[in-house]
Amino acid sequence: MTRSRVSVLAAAVLVILLLAVGGVGGASVLDVYSIWPESFCTPMFQEFTARTGIQINFVRHSSGEVLARIIAEKNNPRVGMVFGGPADTFAAAIDEGVLEPYMPAGVDAIPKGYRHPEGYYTGIALNPIVFLSNRSFLAENKLQPPASWNDLLHPAYRQQLQMADARTSGTGVNRLISTIFAFGSEDAAYKYMKELDKQVQVYTKSGGGGTVPVGTRQAGAGVFFLVDCILTQQSGYDVVISFPKEGSAVALEACALVKGGKNHDLAKKFLDWLVTDEAQSLYAKYGVGFMPTHPKAVVSDLIDVRGANFIDVDLQWAADNRQRLIDRWVTEVLGQ
Question: DSSP letter string over 32-70?
């Protein structure tokens, strides 16, 4: 056999071996849009890879951006799965026809209220809206941590609040929903939000974007998801978490297959694992302040929700009204 034939044969064998292990064409690589920030999603991805050998490539965007992307990419999906983010975002995606149903193996362990009845999304964590305040700001102004939505209208908070922009962030959307249920009607909530707007320094693009400014005393307080506030505490900032007595929404953090996306076989394996108590106990292991949806999963000692009043939100109602509520906020509150 000539040297050239040997080289060709060796190359062919190498290609066959690479295909067998998934090294060509991304056969063992799952592309994902993650709504969770890197510090929350990376440990989950790494643990899954260690168990299965399946690599996860991800791009992180806020929920509004992810929704816009998967709609825009409907005819040529770039990812196989969306990981994390409020379930109202996924419910809106169902209406756009960009998700594919799948019931993960073992999903019956997850309470029915935490998963779509037809399998279009599956909840893997719970994440309530809370207040975060800088402790020195409170002391300087002789204030207690806010315990009511109306407390944020105190003159000391003028231009001292940061919170998420509802156009780009699920945190912002869940803040709007929280005030609607807390005040009993949309009209009352938007009247309140007009007053609250006078207190706001900036509306951030991402949900947790204002937590560090609160920690560094650039801002006095803000409205965020619990998981971002716990991360801020764990990062060493002197901040305090509190809850509105009128109530706040609890987001169901979910995952779903993108319709027509690549490597759904790998995505299904990932979803099968994510609904286990083993996977959801990793939140506690890595100090991530999500509350698991699996009843047997370990809950982090960092989570203390004593005194909280959480509101159950109809996800279909939230999905059906999501864009309308955002548009009304932009028009009536921002005046745009």
Answer: EEE-S-HHHHHHHHHHHHHHH--EEEEEE--HHHHHHHH
Q: Are 107 and 255 in contact (CB under 8 A)?
A: no
Q: Which domains does the chain have, with CATH numbers?
A: 3-126+252-292 (3.40.190.10), 127-250+306-333 (3.40.190.10)
Instruction: In whole angstroms, give the CA distance from residue 54 to residue 44.
Output: 12
Q: How far from 327 is each of 173, 175, 196, 204, CA to CA, in Å?
A: 11, 14, 17, 17
Q: What is the pLDDT of residues 177-221, one digit of tens each?
A: 999 999 999 999 999 999 999 999 999 998 999 999 999 999 999
Distances (CA, A) of 256 to 38, 81, 83, 93, 159: 18, 6, 7, 10, 38
Above pLDDT 70, what percent of the chain? 92
Rounded Cα distance, 29 and 38, in Å: 18
pTM to 2 decimal places: 0.85
The C-alpha atoms of residue 146 and residue 144 are separated, in whole angstroms, by: 6
pLDDT digits (tens, 9 = 90+) for 3-47: 344 343 443 333 333 333 333 334 599 999 999 999 999 999 999
CA angle 288, 294, 296 (to 5 degrees): 95
